[in-house]
Amino acid sequence: MTQDLASPVSLTAVDAPDQPTPTPELEQLYRGFEQELLIPLWTEIGDLMPVHPRSRAVPHVWRWQNLLQLADQAGHLVPVGRGGERRAIALANPALGGKPYATPTLWAAIQYLMPGENAPEHRHTQHAFRFVVEGEGVWTVVGRDPVPMRRGDFLPQAGWNWHAHHNAADRPMAWIDGLDIPFQYNAESQFFEFGREAISDEERTTPERSRSQRLWGHPGLRPVSAPGATVGTPLLNYRWADTDAALTDQLELEAEGHPGTVEPGHAAVRYTNPTTGGDVLPTIRAELHRVRRGTETAPRREAGSSVYQVFDGSGTVTVGDSSWSVSRGDLFVVPSWQPLSVRSEAGSSDSDSGALDLFRFSDTPIFEALHLDRAAVDR
Amino acid sequence: MTQDLASPVSLTAVDAPDQPTPTPELEQLYRGFEQELLIPLWTEIGDLMPVHPRSRAVPHVWRWQNLLQLADQAGHLVPVGRGGERRAIALANPALGGKPYATPTLWAAIQYLMPGENAPEHRHTQHAFRFVVEGEGVWTVVGRDPVPMRRGDFLPQAGWNWHAHHNAADRPMAWIDGLDIPFQYNAESQFFEFGREAISDEERTTPERSRSQRLWGHPGLRPVSAPGATVGTPLLNYRWADTDAALTDQLELEAEGHPGTVEPGHAAVRYTNPTTGGDVLPTIRAELHRVRRGTETAPRREAGSSVYQVFDGSGTVTVGDSSWSVSRGDLFVVPSWQPLSVRSEAGSSDSDSGALDLFRFSDTPIFEALHLDRAAVDR
Amino acid sequence: MTQDLASPVSLTAVDAPDQPTPTPELEQLYRGFEQELLIPLWTEIGDLMPVHPRSRAVPHVWRWQNLLQLADQAGHLVPVGRGGERRAIALANPALGGKPYATPTLWAAIQYLMPGENAPEHRHTQHAFRFVVEGEGVWTVVGRDPVPMRRGDFLPQAGWNWHAHHNAADRPMAWIDGLDIPFQYNAESQFFEFGREAISDEERTTPERSRSQRLWGHPGLRPVSAPGATVGTPLLNYRWADTDAALTDQLELEAEGHPGTVEPGHAAVRYTNPTTGGDVLPTIRAELHRVRRGTETAPRREAGSSVYQVFDGSGTVTVGDSSWSVSRGDLFVVPSWQPLSVRSEAGSSDSDSGALDLFRFSDTPIFEALHLDRAAVDR
Amino acid sequence: MTQDLASPVSLTAVDAPDQPTPTPELEQLYRGFEQELLIPLWTEIGDLMPVHPRSRAVPHVWRWQNLLQLADQAGHLVPVGRGGERRAIALANPALGGKPYATPTLWAAIQYLMPGENAPEHRHTQHAFRFVVEGEGVWTVVGRDPVPMRRGDFLPQAGWNWHAHHNAADRPMAWIDGLDIPFQYNAESQFFEFGREAISDEERTTPERSRSQRLWGHPGLRPVSAPGATVGTPLLNYRWADTDAALTDQLELEAEGHPGTVEPGHAAVRYTNPTTGGDVLPTIRAELHRVRRGTETAPRREAGSSVYQVFDGSGTVTVGDSSWSVSRGDLFVVPSWQPLSVRSEAGSSDSDSGALDLFRFSDTPIFEALHLDRAAVDR
C-alpha cells in the first residue's frame, strides 16, 4: 500500500524504554533467564520493533571500473569449474558483518567468463537473473535453451531450472548476477543440485534468439500449447531494443500530454511474467528507469531494499544521507525505508539521448505476497 | 479440464425416459401443474440434462463475398447514427429461432463504414472486439485513444469503455465485430449508455500506433505507473506483424524439433491481457491458428462454442456432420461439443506461405471461470 | 460493484431507434439479409442492448400449500426411478415461454419422496442444493456419505458428485431443489451420468451428522489432511441451529450498537465454502435473511436473479410493481434489476421470535466471476 | 510441494569446494576484494547454497514449569507499561547468537499478567497470536473488541490491529505469544505505533464471547454485510471446545474406516481465515495435532521451521538427533528440514483421553506464498 499522506508514520520511537531499577532480585531474575535461554522483550523491543524500518544495511556505491578490473584479475587467477561453480564476486554491504550481502535480502555480483570458458550446469531454489551493462558473446543455457546475452539484456531465471554459461567469443565478458541468496539463507529454504559437467554440442550453438523468446517474446500473445501460469517467467531474455522502445514511448507520450510516466521526466518499465502479468520471479522485481536529462525525481521510500546499476548516462544519486556522482556500470544499494532521489546530468541539449538509465532490482514481491508492502513519497 | 481418455463420457442417454401410464388422475395432476405454473422434471429431463451438450445451434458457414456485398448495399441505403448506433449485420444461426446469434453465447457481425463516416460514441457492459480480414482506414476511438485498424489486426475492448469509429479513408472499410450479446442477454446483465455525438478533432487524428500500444505493446514489459491487474486488456490493438511472427516462430521451432505447436503442423497463439496473462476479455477468448499446407488437425470437441473466420489460405473444414471448402473471409460456427477438424489445402510447394490461417473466438473464459470447461480429442 | 449513487444509471433508452425509410431497395436488402441468415443490429439494438436489464422473467409467487398438495398427488401417481430420476416439480416463470425456469438462469422445484422410497444415483455438471422448509426423514447420499435433512438445513452439492436420496421415515417428505439448469442449458455445458440403481446398506444408515459435517463443520477449522481449495464446498450440510444462532447474534450485536447486520433490523448470513470463504457453488449463492418484526428493508436491485422461500414468519414482499403477502413455504422470484423490498409483519410483542426468515438463492457468483455484478439501493 | 519419493534430494554436497592454490597474486586479489567490499562466491558457496537447508537453529526444549516460575518472579519485579509494553519473555534458540529467536523466522514467548494489570494499547506490522495452555481471566482487546482467553483458546491477530490486554481475575495468568518478529526483522518491514495508555471502561467488560466470534464463529457462514477477503482472519478467537470436537471427530471417523486423519492415529486441524479458507495470518500457520495413545508418527521434514507446545498428555519427541520426554506446557522447536517424529505415551487404557495434544505454529505461509515449500516423509 502507498502511505496515506494524511496519516504519516508516527515518529515517536520505542527506542530506549525505561528499564526497571536494577536490584539484586532483578539481577537474579536475569541470570535465571540466561540459564533457561530466555530473553525479555522489554530490554529488546526498541531494536526488534522499531516505529519504521531502520536498516542494518547502509547506502553504498561500488564503482564498475574497480569491479571490472578485479574480475579480470580473477579471470586470470581463478579457474571456473565444479565446486566453486561460478566466477562471481559479490557486493558486501559494509554494515552487514562481512557477509556477501548487498542488502539483507539481496545478493549482487559481477560474473566474469574468459573466452571459451564454461560454467558447469547446476540448479538451485534461489531465484536469479543476469543483466548486461556491456559486452556480449556469452550464452546462458537454461533447460538446454541457449540464451544470448548482450548489452541491455535482462535474463531472469526462476529457481530449480538447470543452467550453465559458455563464452563463445574471443574476449572476456562481464555481467551482473542478482539472486535472493540472503533471503533464502535467512528463511532456510535452499536446495541445490549439480547437473552435467559439460553441456552438449547442440546447446553450444549461438542462436540470435532463444527458443523461449521465439515462443514468449511477442507482445500480448502466448502459445496456445502452454496455457497455464508459471511460477517464474517462461521468457528467458528481455532484449534491450524492446526495453529502450518502451521507455522512449513513455517519454514521448508525456511530451504529447498523455499519462504513462511515473512522474514528470521519469519513465519506467517493469519486467513481467507473461503468464501472469506479475513479477518475473517470486522474490525479485526488476525494472529499468529512465530519468530525462536535467530531471530530479521525488524522494521515495519503500519497505524493502533495492540494488541499482547505472546502465547509461550520468547523474547524482541521493540515498538517505549519502550522495554520489554515478556513471555507467556503477552499482548502489538503497536500504529499506531510506529515501532515494536521482538527478540526471543536465546536458548541453535537451535531447533524451542524455538520459540517465538505471536498472533496478528489489525484494518487493516478497513484501507484496505477504501484504507487508509500504511506500511513501516525500514531496 | 481435458477429458480423461480412459473414462469416456457415458453414451447412455437419458433421452426419453419411460413415462407413467396415462390415467384420468394423471391428466388431472398435469392440469393442476399447469394451473400452478409447474412443470415436472420427469417429462423434461432428456432435454434439460443430456449426457453431453447437444447444441441447439448447428454448424454453418457464411461466405465473405456475400456478406461484403450486402454490407456495401447497406452502406448506400442505411445511415449510421444515434439510435441504430452501428452498421453491423449479424450472423443468425439457422437453428436459433431467428435470433441474431451465431451461437447461444456469441454474436458476430460484419460492420461497414463508408468514407468519412462516423459511428457515434457509446458504451455497454457487453465485451467486444474487432478483427480485420482486409482493408484499412478506420480508427476506433476507445476512451479518446484513436486505434488504427488494418488487415490482421485484433482490437479487443472490454465492457463499459467509451468507443466510437471513424473512417478517415476515401474508401469503405469492413471488419468483423464479436460480442457476448447472447450470453449477456440470457444472463440479463446488460447496461448501455450513450456518449458524445461526435468525437473531438484531436481524436480524429490517424496515428500509426495507439497510445495503448505505445504503453502496453512491448513484450514482457509494463509501465511501472500502472501496476494493477485490469478486467479487460489495456492493450487495444494486436498488430498482425506480431501475430504472424509468433506463428512463424512456432512452425520453425517445430521444424527444428522443439515443442511449441499445438499438434504437428498446427501453430496457434492466444491474445492475452498483459496485466494477467489470461484472456483479453472476461467472456471471450481469441486466437489465431495456422495450419501448415497439407495438414489435417485432429478432431477436437470442447464444451462451449466458437466462431472462426478464415484469415488467409484455403482448405476444408469439418464440424460434426458438416464439411465445407473455405477461403479468405468465410465465417463458420462450431457448436458446443461438436468435433472440429481442419485440413489446409495441399499446395504445389511445401512452403508455409500456403498455410491456412484461422481467426477464432469462443466463450471458453466463461466456462473456465465457472469450472465448466471440458475438451476431448478424438484420435 | 455497488452502483455509485452520484452517477445513476442513464435512463435514456435506446428503445426504438429511428429506422431508415422503407423503400423497395431497402426491402430487397432485408430480403438479402434473410437469405444469407443475417440480421442487422439497427433493428434489434433496443431489445439486445437495453440501458439496463429488462428481464424477460416476471415477478411471481408460488404458494407452498398448493405445491405440497400437488406433490403429494404425484407421490401417489408417479413412481420414482431410473430415467425420470426424481419426483421434482419445477416452478415455471409465466413469462419464460413455458420452460421450467424460475428465472432465466435458475431452476427451482419441490421434490417429494414417499416413505421408503429411493431416488437412484446419478451425477451431472449442474450445480445443485436442497433446502428444507419442513419435515425430516430423508438422507441424501453424496459420494456415499449419508447426509441428514431436517427443517432449516441447507445442502449444497457441487456438479459431478454422485448422489441419491432415500426416505427412511414412515411419512412423505418434501423439500426444494435449486439448480443452475437454465444457465447450463443456455451455455450448453451439461454432462450427465447414471450411477448405481441402488445404494448399499451401509449408505442406507441414518446418522445424525454426515461425515462431511464431522470433517468440515467446525468453525474456522479445517482438516490438515485436506489442504487445498475445492470448486464446490466439501461441507454437505449446514444445520439450522448454526444458521439460527448466527442470525440471532447479528441482531443482538445491532441491539448493543455494533455493526453486523445488512441494514437496521435486517440480519443475513451467506453459506460459504470453507476452503475458499467464497460461495458454496460456482454458479449459485445461497443466504438466509432475517427481517425483524415490523421492519421494512430498503428497495435493492441487483444484476442477476434470485429465488426466495419464506422459511418462517409472514410479511409483505414487493418486487417491482408486484406485491404479495407471504408466509411459510411460499416461493417467489426476483428478476434481474427489479427492486425488492420486504416488510415483516408487526407483531403484538417486539420479540425477535416473530421475525420473517427468508431463504434466498441467486446467480450472483456467475456475475462476480465475470465482473458483471452491479447493485443499487433506492433510498 | 511434497517431495516426490522417487526422486530424493541429491545428497552430493557442495560443502567444501576445492580452492585455487594460494599464490602471492591470489592473496593480492583477495586483498583487492576486501578493499572494494567484495566477496567471491567460490569461497562461500558451501554455506550459502547447501544441497538442502542446514538450519543455523538447533532443536531445543523449554520446560513450562521453569518458564512459569521465572515469569511469576518477573510479575513481582518488572512492571508492565508504556515503553516495555509487555511482560513477555522469549525463547532464545541456543544456536542463534543470543538473539531472542526461537527459530530464524519465529518469536515465541511466555507472557504474564498479574491480577488487575493492563498492557497498554499498540499496533505493529508483525503478525501475532496467543495460545493458552492453562488458566483464564485475561481479555485481549483487539480493535475495541474484548476477547476472552481460556485454556485451549487460540487468538490470532493480524498485523496493524490495535490491541491491549487486561487481567480481570484475581490471579496471575500466563499464555504464549507467537510472532514473526525475526522474519520481519530480517526483511526490514516493521512498523510500530503506540495507542492509548488505557482502554475505556466499556472495553474492560468481560464478555463470554467476543464480537468477532459472534459474527464469524458459525461454521460455513459469514455475515452478508462483510463480503470481502481480509488479509488476516476476522475471527479473533478459536475456542477449545470446537478444536477438541474436530479432533475427536477425525479419530472417530478413522475408527469407522473413513479418511480424515493425517496418518493412522494422528488427527490434526488447521486454524483458518474464514474469508479465504487459508492460513489465519499471512506469515504464520497454526495447527492443533492429536496423537492417539501409543501412536508414533512418521518422521517428516519440511522446509521452514516450527514451534510446538504440548497442550495435553505426554510422550516422546524426536527432532533430528535430539529426543525428549515432554508433558503439558513444554515448548520445543523444529528447525528447517529436520525430521520430527512424535510418540504419545502408551496408557493403561486405549481411550483417546490419554492422547498427546500438540499446538504447533510455523512459517509455512511464507514458503507457500513464494513457492518455496517442500516436505518429505521418511518412511
From TrEMBL, chains A, B, C, D:
InterPro entries, per the entry: Cupin_2, GDO-like, RmlC-like_jellyroll, RmlC_Cupin_sf
Residue ranges, annotated region (Disordered): 1-22, 201-228, 257-278
Any Pfam family hit: Cupin_2
Signal peptide boundaries: none
One of the record's GO molecular function terms: oxidoreductase activity, acting on single donors with incorporation of molecular oxygen, incorporation of two atoms of oxygen
Domain Cupin type-2 as annotated: residue spans: 111-177
Keywords: Dioxygenase, Oxidoreductase
Matches recorded under CDD domains: cupin_GDO-like_C, cupin_GDO-like_N
Basic and acidic residues bias (residue ranges): 201-211
Presence of keyword Oxidoreductase: yes
Name of the molecule in the record: Gentisate 1,2-dioxygenase
Organism of origin: Blastococcus colisei
